Amino acid sequence: MSSLDPSTGFTCVACHLVFKTADLQRDHYKTDWHRYNLKRQVAELPPVTDEQFREKVIAFRNEREAQKKEEDEVSSLYCSTCRKKLKSRNAMADHIASKKHKEMEAKEPKGPRQPRKVDCQVLIIL
């Protein structure tokens, strides 16, 4: 791939590339990198290089993994005995040591947790 000169081969205007064969150009059009540059072109932004795109993908994946890890930690800060969400590990430790939590544990029957009962009536009119 060389400078963008249509006379030397097949081009991709969105990515500023030239290809020696139509097959290479067609394969390029199927890549996420090309699609990303198309969206940038619509937004009137300059294209990114393949290397820049790969760095963005890696950064995005790392950020997503960090968010998932954070979400997993937050979801683990739930006391099923008291049905209470806590915002930090310290808050969870304080809650577990609290008198109210210990009272709830003593009241809770052993075995699988049952859902709360909801009283409702259904009236069917035919």
From TrEMBL:
Keywords: Metal-binding, Ribosome biogenesis, Zinc, Zinc-finger. Pfam families: zf-C2H2_jaz. Residues 90-118 are annotated as: Disordered. Residues 102-118 have a biased composition (Basic and acidic residues). InterPro entries: Matrin/U1-like-C_Znf_C2H2, Znf622/Rei1/Reh1, Znf_C2H2_jaz, Znf_C2H2_sf, Znf_C2H2_type. Residues 79-101 form the C2H2-type domain. One of its GO terms (cellular component) is preribosome, large subunit precursor. GO terms for molecular function: nucleic acid binding; zinc ion binding. Belongs to the REI1 family. This is Zinc finger, C2H2 type. The lineage of its organism: Eukaryota, Metazoa, Ecdysozoa, Nematoda, Chromadorea.
